[in-house]
Every structure is written in structure tokens, then in C-alpha cells.
Amino acid sequence: MTASVTAILLAGARPTPDPIAVAAGVAVKPLAPVAGRPMIDYPARALLDHPAVARLIILTQRPDLYAADPATAWLAADPRVRFEAGGQGIASSLLALMEGEGVGYPLLVTTADHVLLDRAMLDQFVGEADGADIAVALVERRTLLARYPQSRRTWLKFRDGWWSGANLFWFGSERAKRVIALWQQVEQDRKKGWKILAAFGPLALIGAALRILTLRGGIARVGRRFGLDARLVAMEKAEACIDADKVEDVALIEAILGNALHRNSSPVRGGGPRSGGGVAPSR
């Protein structure tokens, strides 16, 4: 598709001190270093380097911090990037943004701690979500544990697998506001799967309890209830659901980045080192 997507990067701060920010000695978590770079640098570059993304909006309460930091000052200087003030909740901030000017559809939303976000993930998500009113990316438990058995996530259990969020959301039209308004009602319980399911109605809750409902079918059914096309995108890469949510996650992410750098810089058969390898900034 052409460069028509507005990417939104959630870079807000918690009301209480974040353990990762405290451990790193920085004011806000997105500035915490991961393998020598602020964590926000990784998803921001991945989004801006993707051909489908036309612009990037960073939702944060402290845009001044990013402009002042030499490692993230490029965000404030890039004409495709703009900062918007975030509110107290994700859903309310998104609704306010959608009501404003200069924000067109489709919207792709992700988080500043999605350090491992890459071109392959975005290719799959944009390709499968394009045309939907709303889409959500998830990773099935077997996909993750086959690569990273030590990783611990929050799982929703359904007949078609156990699923964990990949911090990628697609809002393709104005109709998506109906679901975001519901999200606003339950976002304080976003880690408590049962309360979220209950908000979608007793059928979803009972179906999940009895494991007679597939998540794919459930999302489609929720979409029909709201009069829109809703899709699940089952991500192929296990890394899609590994974000820097906890201090121990950062260690795993740095190991993954280190392994990728080693693979990309290892000698090829019959020649010298590969060119263009590693995870160094592309700008």
C-alpha cells in the first residue's frame, strides 16, 4: 500500500515511578537505554522506515524531554513527527486525538517499549489489517515458547490457543471509535482478561470460560456487534509480544538484539563480513 498510515507511538508516563526508568536513572521509561539506545528510538525508526507510514504522532506528557536528549532530538527535528499531549488513559487520549484535526485513517498504534518491532512485523500486520475497521495483533503461546521458553506473559485462553498481546492496533475508520469508547470504560482492568471479556457481553465471557469460543471468532463476533469489520492478526514472529514491560524483559531484549547483531555481522561463506548488518541507527 502507499504511504497513507498515521502511526501513533504511545510514550506516556505512569502516575507512579516506573521500575525501568528508576533503574536507568531517567525521567521517563521511553528514554531508558536498551543496548545503548533509548528504547523509543527502536520503534520510532521502524515505523518511519516503513513505506506504508506517512507520519508519526508521539503521545506523551513530556515532549520537552525528547527534544532535550541528544539521542532523541532527531524526533523533534523530523518533519514527519509531531508530539501530542497524552491524557490520563490510552483510550481517552486516542479518542481526543481522533477528534482533532490532521489525523486521518488508517491509524496504527503501538508503544514506545516495543523495542523489537521490525519491518517483517509491520509488513504482516499492515498487510492483514488493511481494509479492516479495527484489528489487533496477538501471539499464540506455542509461537512464543518455541523460541523463548523462559518468557512470561499474560495469556487469554481460548479453544484456538492461548494468546498474548503484541501492542499493535489498527483503527481503519471512524467506526473504530465505538470500540475505543468501550476500551475507555475497561482500560483500568486491561491486564484482567475476564473483565475485558465481560464488557463484550455474556456470550464472550461464557464462551471463554468453557473454551468453546475461538479468539478469532470472538473478535469477528464483537465486530459484528458493533457493526464493523474486526480482525485478529496472529503474528508469525515470537518477538512481536516481547516488550520492555519489566526490568528482566530488557535483559532478554538485549540478548535478542545482540544475537541479531552477531548473525548479521558474521562472515559469509567465501567472503568477508556482510554489509549493512547490525542494529545501528539508520539515519
UniProtKB/TrEMBL annotation:
SUPFAM superfamilies according to UniProt: Nucleotide-diphospho-sugar transferases (SSF53448)
InterPro entries: MobA-like_NTP_Trfase (IPR025877), Nucleotide-diphossugar_trans (IPR029044)
Domain of life: Bacteria
Any Pfam family matching the protein: NTP_transf_3
Domain named MobA-like NTP transferase: residues: 28-153
UniProt keyword annotations, A-Z: Magnesium
Example GO molecular function: nucleotidyltransferase activity
Presence of keyword Magnesium: yes
Protein name (Swiss-Prot/TrEMBL): 4-diphosphocytidyl-2C-methyl-D-erythritol synthase
